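Recap for those who missed Tuesday's class. We walked through two folding examples back to back. For each one, the amino acid string is listed first and its predicted structure tokens come directly after. Nothing is annotated here on purpose, so try labeling regions yourself before you check the end of the notes.
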Amino acid sequence: MVQFGTFILTALLLQSPSLDSASPKERMDAVEQMAALGKTENVAPLAEALKKEPRSEVRAAIVAGLGRIGVQEAVPILTSTLLTDLDKDVRLQAVDSLQRLYIPVESSGTIRTVFNKVKSAFVGPDRPVVQNESRVDPTVNATLAEAMQKDTSQEVRAAAARALGSLKAKDRVAVLISTLENPQNQEHPEVRAEIVESLGLIRDGAAGPALQRAVKDSDKQIAQAAILSIGLVGYKDARPVLEDIFRTDRSMESRKRAIEAIALMRDPGALPFFESLLGSSDDYYREMAAEGLARIDHDPSVLKTRYETEKKSNVKNALAFALVAANQDQYFNDLVNGLLTRQDYQVEAYIYELGKFEGKLPELHKYLKSSNARVRATMARIVGNIGDPSSRPLIQELTMDKDSQVAREAIVALRKLTAA
């Protein structure tokens, strides 16, 4: 009987997929089995298999698997792949995996690559970004910058430029600017647009003058992206230019970007501009005026009256944000209630900012114990994104929450807090 059991076990082992199989599907199945978070011991055999793999889709799966394992030992393999693989899609997958080493994203289930027509988690408008950019290996930023400048595919160049923003590569701001302004890149608007957005995400004021020049770009997408990025980097010298765009530009989208940028700028000199718009008939302008006031010193008494009479929920949320930022904490509960409405995304952004930049993290911690599961789940996500290690014990407790959605959000948040 023992011999028979040993025979069955041996047979099962022989049936396990292998990286050396003649079948591409079995090789991909082997990658699937090996690509588990933190499995450092699997990096070397996957790297060896990558060197000799003839099929692009299998190489992409290996690259995706290395990203899922998520350990520093994968850096040399992924950077080499980005610079040397002959297949554009494999190089795109390398860009994705390099980001996954530093930005926790959901990666359960079957490995899916660009060959499966799956978009990268870092492509959407609300892409995740690195919590602690100091953890990023400088080699990664250098390789992405090289790919942005030299890759033969505009798609790969644009993806590399975008990744530099997601990784907040402050050490590559100068090369981002020089690439943006190089006359040879005029014919690559997709790359230049990603550079402009990345400069905004990196938030280095040194990019301000270049972004102001980009506002005049003949490509409307680039010009409008530059407007918003000026606000993100807080380049106050450009505020008069943005106010002029708001008042005179024919494009409604450009005017909208201008007021958004001024609201992000935290410039006390914009106080009269915002106060003049609090009574606007346009509810979006009123909303942005309240947001702008939230980020600079202001007299909350005026906003209290506005709050009581305002009918539009998006504006009311912005006014509550401004009041809490002015230490009127009695309005915080009103904001939290907004998480249960159709404006939940707007309110979530405000609560994140209050916790991250306005010293309100203790207020957020209180709501991790809310009786409402939706509030607990959202607050866990916000606290995880803020990334303050002091939140870790409270989030750890929520990983055992009786509500499965709360527990899932807490587990993701804990990963982010651990990586911070």
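Example two. Treat it independently of the first, because the proteins are unrelated.
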Amino acid sequence: MISKKIKFSDISKYLKKKGFVIKKDVKAKNLGKDFNSLSKTLLSSLIIISIFFITPIFKKFFEEKSLYSKDFENNSKNKFEKVLDNVNANKLPKVDEGLSEKYLFEDVLQFEDLPNDVVRLSANTIQQLFKDTNYNLKDVRIKKLVKPVSLSLLPQEMKLIENTKKRKELFIQIILPLIIKENNYIKLDRIRLFSILNKNKNTNAEKNWLGKKFKQYGVVNQDLSTLKIRMDEIPVSMAIAQAAKETGWGTSRFAQEGNALFGQWTWSGDGIKPAGAEDDSTHKVMKFKVLQASVKAYQRNLNTHSSYKKFRSARADFRDKKKPLDSLILSSYLDKYAETGKEYVKILQQIINQNDLIDFDDAKLLPSNMELESLI
């Protein structure tokens, strides 16, 4: 360390400030020399003492600081790991878990109470009906409006329509209003559900309605989050693609004899046994009295069965991000719908793309009553 040399003039100025008078004489010069020597000695002593006194303090300070930083880092890591462990150990109740099947298809079974005199129209009659009501897919793709034509049965002549394009168009025209109609019912239910969720207190009628919907969607423990995820629409293009795949565009025996548009299996209910099934096989393809029941059962199946939980989770993610449902993405989660798995998904996506089915995703059903008019 380099010490600054103290001049006599500096001392003189200091002493003058304190009221002392310094005269420049020989004695003063000698005194200055003595004082200068003394001040150097004192200053050097102070510096040495300070070094010995301060050094241990600084050393201890830096050591403590280093230890504190290390300890803080370790403790932070340990605390963070403990938090993660607690989160993993005490997870929040899982959403979309469990299924009560008792009342799952109760509203679907109500279609069985319809009169038995359901009329099956011929393909020519249906085509003329569509023509008379100006219902064609070209206009739907542009205007996004669908005529509320609700047919109960497919025409038997579907196989006889040799022109593939015309057969596909007729099939889409028949099932499109049915799919949108079921989605509309779900839309109305979701509107009511969110209205209830936004209230601090609910009426008995609203509580009873919630109880009914918990049963309808097989929700256990009355979990509202699960109901919110399950009670949602199925993309129109995806539903059309699945119906086309499962029925060969309306030509399969299951579609013709049992109004089964989506090839759903049953082990206990009424159904049609597949021709190629083994003798000891117990499963059948579900049959329905009308096409509308098949659509409702299909939507309920995707909205509740554990095999399609990832599909519902992906759909909920679209909702959270306020994005429209993307059938090409959502269909990728249907690999468990058929034994062919990923190959089944690939075929669905090809059907959607090759037939421009996404054009129908935002189509609206012209209202047949005031309640549905609010959805246009």
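Answers for example two:
The two ends are 88 Å apart (CA to CA).
The domain at 106-373 is CATH 1.10.530.10 (Lysozyme).
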